[in-house]
Amino acid sequence: MFSYCFMLGVRSLRRNPGLTALMVLTLAVGVAASVSTLTILHVMSGNPIPHKSERLFVPKIDNGTIEDFNPQGEDDSDPQLSYIDATNFLRDGHGERRTVLYGVSAPLEPERKDLSVLAAKGLAVTRDFFAMMDVPMRYGQAWSEADDRAGADVLVLSAALAEKLFGAVDPVGKRVRLMDAQFQVVGVLKPWLPAPKFYKLIGGAGFGEEDDILLPFASAVRHKASPQGSLSCRQRVEPGWQGFLDSECTWLQFFFETKTAAGRAPLQDYLDNYTAAQRKLGRLQRKRPNQLFDVMQWLEFNKVVGNDSRLATWLAFGFLLLCLVNTVGLLLAKFSVRASEVGIRRALGASRKEIFRQFLTETAVIGLAGGVLGLGLALGALALIGMQSQELRAVTRMDWQMLGLTFLMSLGAAMLAGLLPTWRACQVTPALQLKSQ
């Protein structure tokens, strides 16, 4: 029975081609607008590392000056750490793994003479970063713990940069010149760009490009690689690089990984004990509560999904509702001209339930057609948005979830719009229609 109603629905598309095309287009435009904005919101608010997001924590302590401290005021502390606190956290060894990181940028000189100097951007991290963030490797591996301790001149390249420098070969063991030193390549990443880049939200683009290089934190510090990103210095800084490291300037981001989510409480206790001990040494005089953020809380804290994105999504669904109202009117017009057909079928014994099922199936056919066209329009809109910048390109990727939602939304919208016109069509009185023929 369903297949018969479905075939009647397909035939009805050709009965009033102009009206049918207008309904399909109206529905498709509404679906495309809502799906496009919902896709962007879906990518921006997604969990970038779902299997361990509750086990990765960002610490936040307040190392501001006591002179301008207002306990009752808004929290004005920097969510980054000073070099003193970051290195103390590394040394104390709490959590299953831990890493400190900051953005670096330096000219890179390839071995190939046909290539000019490149501006390489990336991160200075510790070895644990690779395991903590599930960084995929194409060639080689992360550097060793000994390299971490010694600040060895080694680095890991992105897939794109490795291919540009060495071609489609394994470059492990080759060398490049960086920061006036010869760095050995120990690994090459597979294409890797979490959305969002939860590990580098401060002073970086949450949906930006892949990092070109990853190098040991100790090596970057030894070569005096200036931080690229956010930097806050509220107190006097002694001259020179060592003076900067010994200062209370905040410029480093830090992550702990625990074995289970239950490891949060012991980690919080460690933070509280640490700040209490530092306070006895004359540091961290502000007595603001220490905080730990898991990944999703960290995204919320940094407002990765802004109110403007949510507002745009609501407006798009409002536009979809307006399109549904127009579709209702068009379906009423389409079904009203078939009153005589309904009257004859009722006189021949068709029940209202059968008429209702047939007409509702026809609206479903319109919904499927609108879904196909809406999907094409949505993909086109996302492509146009992604052409504006690299950051937008990263959030305009439609996955299978959104692909399925497009058809469900279109089908559901069409069925919803067809309820009133279908119900009105079923109320036709057979006697009046036969008398008028």
UniProtKB/TrEMBL annotation:
Cellular compartments annotated: Cell membrane
InterPro entries associated with the record: ABC3_permease_C (IPR003838), MacB_PCD (IPR025857), Macrolide_Exporter_MacB (IPR050250)
Keyword set includes Membrane: yes
UniProt domain MacB-like periplasmic core: residue ranges: 20-226
Domain ABC3 transporter permease C-terminal: 316-429
Protein name: FtsX-like permease family protein
This protein's record includes keyword Cell cycle: no
Lineage, top ranks: Bacteria, Pseudomonadati, Pseudomonadota, Betaproteobacteria, Burkholderiales
PANTHER family: ABC-TYPE MACROLIDE FAMILY EXPORT SYSTEM PERMEASE COMPONENT 2, MEMBRANE COMPONENT OF TRANSPORTER-RELATED
UniProt keyword terms in alphabetical order: Cell membrane, Membrane, Transmembrane, Transmembrane helix
Membrane topology label: Multi-pass membrane protein
Transmembrane regions: 311-337, 358-385, 400-420
